[in-house]
Specification:
By secondary structure, this protein is an all-alpha fold. Helix content is about 75%, strand content about 0%.
Length: about 290
Amino acid sequence: MAKSGTTFLSSGITQMFLSTFSFAMANVFVKQLAGIPVMQIVFFRSIVAGVLCVYGIRKASISWKGNNKRFLILRGVSGTVALVLFFLTLQNIPLASATTIQYLSPIFTATIAIFFLKESVRILQWLFYAMAFSGVLLIKNFDPRVSTFYLFIGIIAALGSGVAYNFVRSLRDSEHPLVIIFYFQIVGLVVSIPFFAFEWKTPVGWDWFYLFLVGIFSYLGQIFLTNAFSRERAASVAIIVYTGLIYAIGIGWFVYGEEQTIFTFAGMALVVGGVIMSVLYARRNKLAEVTEA
């Protein structure tokens, strides 16, 4: 029998598959909660994930306070805004389309990093970005279920994720991953509570269970993601994130009867293909370490 380190399904790759599956399941339960206001979902998600995070922090014997509190809070704010808007798209457009639009976030991450982290983006990468955005336009034009409003909301959600990821990258040398996740949950709680004065719907029956599962799967997704990047080369595991689209297409069809046309499939392929080629090209040229003259 081959050693585990030499097989395709190494520990890191397995963890990444588990992470992608966990986030896909969290998205499904958000969609199941279409009758519950998004801010309530964020609130309950933050409670469940926050409690699990506190347990992890205590078990690891680390301080929850963190070092760079300003960036920790800003990461929490940008991540919460992105989460709220993404949940809105999940509840109002097909699961696969919402997931595909969210996959634009690496483009925004790289673009923002030009100014925030002084990284470079080369001409060929911009062509890959244009390819990805053309895929979004193809989905919009050939899928009447994707309105202009929710397309815009989805793109802003991806932008918010790009901002959040840049804060995470700037914090990785000074903060434990659990501390970063913990602040995200705290900010989510603080931001969501004021909205209850304007809109509240008491969960009933299975709603409580779905809310609990959103928090559980979101937390597991974060933990598996962290473990994957700590046990395997980033280039080997990052691309696996996009298997989430396969889950979204399958679950959307099986659970919600969301059929796709050849044009929407083509749009999804352009988005995922453009982002993947950009990521691979960036890593190949070590853009994180080399600044163009």
